[in-house]
Automatic annotation (TrEMBL):
Alphabetically ordered keywords of this record: Cytoplasm, Cytoskeleton, Nucleus, Phosphoprotein
Any one GO cellular component localisation term in the record: centrosome
Functional summary from the UniProt entry: Significantly diminishes the chaperonin TCP1 complex ATPase activity, thus negatively impacts protein folding, including that of actin or tubulin.
Species: Daubentonia madagascariensis (Aye-aye)
Complex formation: Forms ternary complexes with the chaperonin TCP1 complex, spanning the cylindrical chaperonin cavity and contacting at least 2 subunits.
Keyword Cytoplasm listed: yes
Main localization of the protein described in the UniProt heading: cytoplasm
InterPro entries: Thioredoxin-like_sf, Thioredoxin_domain
Protein name: Thioredoxin domain-containing protein 9
Length: 187
């Protein structure tokens, strides 16, 4: 008997809270609609100009990224080039690989796709046999390794396939999600 009364009371309180929340949301939406209805031509024109300016800036940023080598997955020949490339871009994914390692080829396929999709990030690869100093400095011991560099500092690593489901047939989306977790690309 008491249990039924407390459940009934709880459901009424919950129903009341839900009603109040719904009313608040409805009032907010009504006020936004009213603001839009009351906009005059000048306000609409200013809004349109702000949006156009934002689009122009986005297009300009895209062109700048493309001029710096974003949008493609390419190999850099030496350690010296690594430092130059990292200085040029805010977000860099560098794949440390070896030709004889099968899993590096798997990673290459996914990185080609992601490089075209995420222009905000530069995608590079560097042969570990040509970069012993850099591999020692970054403590790269397992191949393949992705070094995730943001603002000139190595912020994270994806070592092997452990973070990708520990399988050779992980999806590009899985790798994209993992890189997004490190905020190295916009996921």
């Amino acid at each position: 008997m008491e249990a039924d009364a407390s459940v009934d009371m709880f459901s009424k309180v919950l129903e009341n809270q839900l009603l109040q929340t719904t009313k608040l949301v409805e009032e907010h939406l009504d006020s936004e609609i009213q603001k839009l209805d009351q906009m005059d031509e000048d306000e609409l024109e200013r809004l349109k100009e702000r949006r156009l300016e934002a689009l122009r800036k986005a297009q300009q940023q895209k062109q700048e990224w493309l001029s710096k080598g974003h949008g493609e997955y390419r190999e850099i020949p030496s350690e010296r080039d690594f430092f130059q490339e990292v200085k040029e871009s805010n977000k860099v994914v560098c794949h440390f690989y070896r030709d004889s390692t099968f899993r590096c080829k798997i990673l290459d396929r996914h990185l080609v796709i992601l490089s075209k999709k995420h222009l905000e990030t530069k995608f590079l690869k560097l042969n570990v046999e040509k970069a012993p100093f850099l591999c020692e400095r970054l403590r790269i011991k397992v191949i393949p390794t992705l070094a995730l560099v943001k603002d000139g500092k190595t912020q994270d690593y994806v070592v092997g396939f452990t973070d990708l489901g520990n399988t050779d047939d992980f999806t590009t989306e899985t790798l994209e999600w993992r890189l997004g977790c490190s905020d190295i690309l916009n996921y």
